[in-house]
C-alpha cells in the first residue's frame, strides 16, 4: 500500500515533483495569502491548475494551459508572502475590481500541508517576500489561517 499522506496531486508531472522536492522545504513560515473568491477559505489555496479545473480562472485553451501547468513548478505552487507590505498593493488595488469579495489571510505554513520555499532562494533577482508553497494532495492549509482585518 502506498503512503498517501505526503504525496503531491496526481497531475504534478514527475519532473515538477523532482524540482519541488529539490527546492522546497518542510518549513513553518508566517505568511499571508489572498483569498480572491471571498470568505470560503478553501478556494484561497488553489494553484493555477486547480483554479482552471474548477472554472474559477478562464484561459483561451484550457487543455493546453493545464498541460503547461503540470510541468511548471511555479504554476503548481500557491503564492504567499511573508511581508504583508509586499501584498498590500496587489490586494488593495490590482485585485479590487476583478475580485471585490477578496480576503486577506494570515497564518503559518504547516509542513504537514506541503513544501515551501522563499522564491528569492531560487531566483536571486526576486526582491520581495514571495513564497512558493507546493501543497500535498488533500492538504487543508486553510485550517491554519485567519482573515486579516485590512482596514
Can you describe this structure in just a few lines?
This protein is an alpha+beta fold.
Write structural notes for this entry.
The chain has 151 residues and is α+β, with helices and mostly antiparallel strands. Helix content is 23%, strand content 20%. It has helices at 14-23, 48-53, 62-70, 85-94, and strands spanning 30-35, 78-81, 103-108, 114-118, 130-135, 145-147. The strands form two sheets. Strands 1-3-6 form a three-stranded antiparallel beta sheet, with no helix packed on it. Strands 2-5-4 form a three-stranded antiparallel beta sheet, covered by helices on one side.
Topology readout:
Elements lengths: L13 H10 L6 E6 L12 H6 L8 H9 L7 E4 L3 H10 L8 E6 L5 E5 L11 E6 L9 E3 L4
Antiparallel strand pairs: 1-3, 2-5, 3-6, 4-5
Features:
globular; 6 strands; alpha+beta; 3-stranded antiparallel sheet
Structural class: alpha+beta
What is the average per-residue confidence, as pLDDT, rounded to a whole number?
A: 91
Question: Largest sheet, described in full?
Answer: 3 strands, antiparallel
**DSSP helix fraction:** 10-25%
Low-confidence stretches: none
| Largest beta sheet: strand ordering | 1-3-6
Number of strands: 6
